[in-house]
Structure prediction request, 553 residues.
Amino acid sequence: MGRAAPILTVLCGIFVLWYLAAIWMNATWVYDQASRSNTSVTLAQVIPQTMAQERPLLPPPHQVAQVLWDGVTGQAVTSKRSLVYHGYVTLRGTMMGFALGTLLGVALAMAIVRFRVMELSVMPWAIISQTIPIVALAPMILTVSNQIGIDNREVPKAIIAAYLSFFPVLVSMIKGLRSPDQMQLDLLSTYGASEPQTFFKLRLPASLPYFFASLKVAVAAALVGTIIGELPTGAVEGLGARMLIGSQFGEPLIMWAALFAAAILAGGLILIVGWIERAARARMGVPA
Amino acid sequence: MKDTFHTDRPVIEARGLNLTFQTGDGPVHALKDVDLTINKGDFVSFIGPSGCGKTTFLRCIAALEHPTGGTLTVNGLTPDDARKRRAYGYVFQAAGLYPWRTIAGNVKLPLEIMGFSKAEQEERVRKVLELVELSGFGAKFPWQLSGGMQQRASIARALAFDADILLMDEPFGALDEIVRDRLNEELLKLWARTSKTIGFVTHSIPEAVYLSTKIVVMSPRPGRITDIIDSPLPKDRPLEIRDSPEFIEIAHRVREGLRAGHLDE
Prediction:
């Protein structure tokens, strides 16, 4: 309870602000309607009408919650209207991109720590890659993969997700693999340890705390990448596509529901990574 | 200095040893014309102010540094070859235990690297933990042990593969006086039981005199040996021996040697 209190306080504050903003933004429409029918409305009449519009500028929380709930439980999970279905499509893309990005990040970090020439040649490009806005790059990746005959939408999506998620893993793993000090390395050389032995007995285990810290960032980045990958495809599946449809057809409720579904998905993924991290730390003897 | 007390073959022999580091400020003479013979079963302390090359000399024996001149043999081999034959175990100032391994896991580390069988690993870990009086702590993680116990575990790790030579670089430097006294006492017992040859770097005069059969006094810029003292103290040394006239006399001579090295500058 002691830990929940501050979080709940902030949450309440957000809800209050959200409702106030919803009243303020949606009132315009109510006043508009009133002036068209030449009637006047009092503030007390306006407020209820800002709470249940079909196309609100800013839907209040309970409307978003309702649409979200309906999208999750009100449909068969195979339906194109089901957020579970779209969430699953996005989750699948995220996991593929996350796996690919993590693998790439770890592999590059190993190469960079081992070969100085790799640091000089690859590292600047890795940094530059992150300065290019992914929204500009995503359509190109989609077009190119289409051109070279990859019809499957999953592949370009995973590439975009991996593009965003490899970087935090790369940076953390370089730091982690270099974290053993000279004394630790000297100790192993007094045993005549080979390079692979030094890597597996010392560098790799020493880098694990850094690795897990970066996974939390990487999994969130992979989700963002996947959603961006779903936007410009004219994709019909995934939370990104859902957001785009909501925006194009003027259905803000659909958009908001998809947005929150994505946020909940991200939170869940980060929780899971946290559990795995804790299990690994317990095995490695870190005091709780 | 001629060694008259020991007739055994020399374990470590340095002749005209030089080591110059090239730095941005020009060459640094870490070791200059070092001659030293260490015999089997000796307990040799290296004492001197920082920069005198005592640690560098130990690292040369361990093939962690490579001399730029002179000869150095360990068991009649080059330091590199001696290392391949597991001639020595090295103990650093910090225990340097892996936090993700248990105490037994840490002691096992060199055994895994050297390819001992699983059964032999278990057996050796049990034996050396007993030797440093840490039986029953094998399943603990390093953070669960005091600093002194951690350093004992690191000694166990250096002993695990049965090297004849134990090289210790200020192993108790970071510990408080009381723990240090106890570990000194235990180290002497361990030395008596295992009859290893020990090279021990310290900057504590009482520690050097209490432990050693031979005290090598060094001075800096360039790093060199100024005095080698063969201790007349008996092998069996209770802590009280530090109040005896012989002990005080040797300590006095070490202090003189350190001062003489300082006046040279």
Q: What stands out?
A: Residues 83-283 of chain A form a domain with the MetI-like fold fold (CATH 1.10.3720.10).
